[in-house]
Specification:
Layout: H1 14-34, H2 40-47, H3 51-57, H4 61-83, H5 89-106, H6 109-119, H7 123-129, H8 132-144, H9 154-170, H10 177-212, H11 215-218
Length: about 220
């Protein structure tokens, strides 16, 4: 899922690449710890490079945020594609949701960026869209196996992420508090899947009985 470089991109000089890598690593750490309130000037100071150097590589703060978000989406996409090899659709689904929430807990900026992506149609939204195929396949497989509520879709996953991100934000002092609420949500999804499966089985048996005894149709 790695994104291609722009056609006009040229290899950087070794010192320029080193500065760029330092800027990205510093921004990744500061955004993760404090969210998107961190400015480019502070990133430059912490990375021990000039402010002008930061702007040469990233003309705007949004450009730097987008670079890091694409990096995260790439890693999450690889995780989702790997999860597709799991023969148990429910295990794959739960594993992906847990990975998403673990990353959100580790990086305070992620929920802010996901929220911004939902409001935009630009690069951030395009990055999220790249997850639709592998994540959609995970959801579809869990539903096909009767282990996930049949009306569940990717939008529901976005709502779950927002809900649990709020738990992480409001209970920052309690690491892993979101896991309890995720368990409650998953229990509800699994229970609904069981109810739907039972309704489908009852309907199938009823239709079978009607075919065996056509007289019932005339009553």
């Amino acid at each position: 899922m790695a994104r291609p470089d722009p056609p006009s991109a040229r290899p950087l000089r070794r010192d320029a690449q080193r500065n760029r890598d330092r800027i990205v690593a510093t921004a990744r750490q500061l955004f993760s710890e404090r969210g998107l309130s961190v400015g480019l000037d502070e990133i430059a100071h912490t990375a021990e490079v000039g402010v002008g150097t930061v702007y040469r590589h990233f003309p705007t703060k949004d450009a730097l945020v987008q670079e890091l978000f694409y990096e995260f989406i790439d890693s999450l996409g690889i995780y989702a594609e790997t999860a597709l090899f799991d023969s148990d659709g429910w295990t794959a689904f739960v594993g992906f949701v847990e990975r998403l929430m673990e990353a959100t807990e580790e990086n305070r900026a992620l929920h802010e960026v996901f929220a911004a992506a939902a409001r935009s149609e630009g690069g951030l939204a395009a990055a999220v869209a790249r997850l639709e195929s592998p994540v959609g396949k995970i959801i579809d497989e869990a539903k096909a196996q009767g282990k996930l509520a049949p009306d569940f879709d990717g939008n529901d996953l976005g709502v779950i992420h927002s809900m649990l991100a709020a738990v992480i934000r409001e209970h920052a002092e309690n690491d892993g508090a979101w896991r309890r609420y995720l368990r409650l949500i998953l229990d509800g999804l699994a229970a609904e899947a069981r109810r739907s499966r039972n309704r489908s089985q009852k309907l199938t048996r009823r239709e079978g009985a009607t075919q065996v005894n056509p007289a019932r149709q005339r009553r």
